[in-house]
Specification:
This protein has 131 residues and is mostly helical. The protein has eight helices and no strands. The termini are far apart.
Length: 131
C-alpha cells in the first residue's frame, strides 16, 4: 500500500549512509582543492544539501559537525605551513588567512588548544631550525 512505499527499507538506510559519505567527501575535496576551510554556504552548494543535512552527514560519518572538523583541518594545515616555512617570508597572519581563519585571536586560541603552543612558538622553532 501507500504506507509501504514511504517506509524506509534497509536499502534506503544504506543509501543514506552512502550519501553521508559522499557529502563529507565532497566537502573535504573542496577544502583540499581550495587549500582553505570552506564556509558552510560553499559546502552546502558543493554537496547540494541543506545546512541541517550537511551537519547530520558529518556527525554520522565523523562524530563531529563540519565546523569542528574543518577547524581541526585548517589548524593542521596551518601548523604544517608554519613548521615547514623558512620563517622569514611567512607570518602567522598570512598562514591563518590563507587557510581560512578570519579572526587571528581565535585562530591563536584554537591553535594553542589543539597543539599546546602558540603559533608564534611553532614559527620560532621553524626559524631556529632553518639557520
Amino acid at each position: 500500500a501507500l504506507a509501504d512505499s514511504i517506509d524506509p527499507t534497509d536499502d534506503d538506510r544504506r543509501s543514506l549512509r552512502i550519501d553521508d559519505a559522499w557529502i563529507v567527501n565532497a566537502c573535504i575535496d573542496l577544502a583540499e582543492l581550495t587549500g582553505r576551510v570552506p564556509g558552510i554556504g560553499e559546502m552546502r552548494h558543493v554537496a547540494h544539501v541543506s545546512e541541517t543535512r550537511l551537519r547530520t552527514a558529518f556527525v554520522r560519518q565523523l562524530g563531529i559537525p563540519p565546523s569542528k572538523f574543518f577547524r581541526q583541518w585548517g589548524l593542521d594545515r596551518a601548523r604544517r605551513h608554519l613548521l615547514h616555512s623558512d620563517g622569514r617570508s611567512v607570518t602567522i597572519a598570512m598562514v591563518a588567512t590563507d587557510v581560512g581563519f578570519g579572526h587571528l585571536g581565535r585562530f591563536s586560541r584554537y591553535y594553542l588548544k589543539q597543539f599546546g603552543e602558540l603559533p608564534s612558538a611553532t614559527l620560532a622553532s621553524s626559524r631556529a631550525g632553518s639557520h
